[in-house]
Amino acid sequence: MSLDPQPLAPALEAAEAAGRTTVRLDLDGVRGKAELMRRCGDALRLPEWVGGNWDALADALRDLSWLPGPGPAGGGWLVAVTSWRGYADARPGEWETLVEVLEDAVAFWRERAGGPELVVVLAEAGPSGPVAGAPPRTPRLKRRRG
């Protein structure tokens, strides 16, 4: 794996202490959509009805009822996407669509005032060591392809 999990561990521990359910989506070695969808299914423990397409993943991320619920504080969920750069480089169009799906899901949960939130963090090892987070970007709405 290209990311040393130690620098990410304190962030995950802090999120759990704040009542968030944490999930790690490791994309190391993913080079195509089928493998990406399998990894999403495994990491997020997606139900069987979720097909291997963008719209099904988007719908599933607006539900999340099958994941362990947020703690008593209603903190929500934190998804840490790790080792993503190889996939982003190999499949830039698919990566852009995944980012859009994740952004849409984050926005959906954020709009539910007073309810739990979904937070997605991109984490990758860089030349100077592991770095968590990514610069914010403006979502671009476009039609997802099956």
Question: Keywords, please?
Answer:
146 residues; alpha/beta; 5 helices; 40% helix; disordered N terminus
What does this structure look like?
With 146 residues, the protein is an alpha/beta fold. Helix content is 40%, strand content 19%. The protein has 5 helices and 4 strands, in the order αβααβααββ. It has helices spanning 5-17, 33-44, 54-61, 85-90, 92-110; strands at residues 20-26, 76-82, 117-126, 129-132. It has a 4-stranded mixed β-sheet with strand order 1-2-3-4, with helices on both faces. A hairpin with a 2-residue loop joins strand 3 and strand 4 (129-132). Helix 3 runs parallel beside helix 5 (92-110). The two termini are 29 Å apart. 21% of the residues are buried. Mean pLDDT is 80; it is low at 1-5 and 126-145.
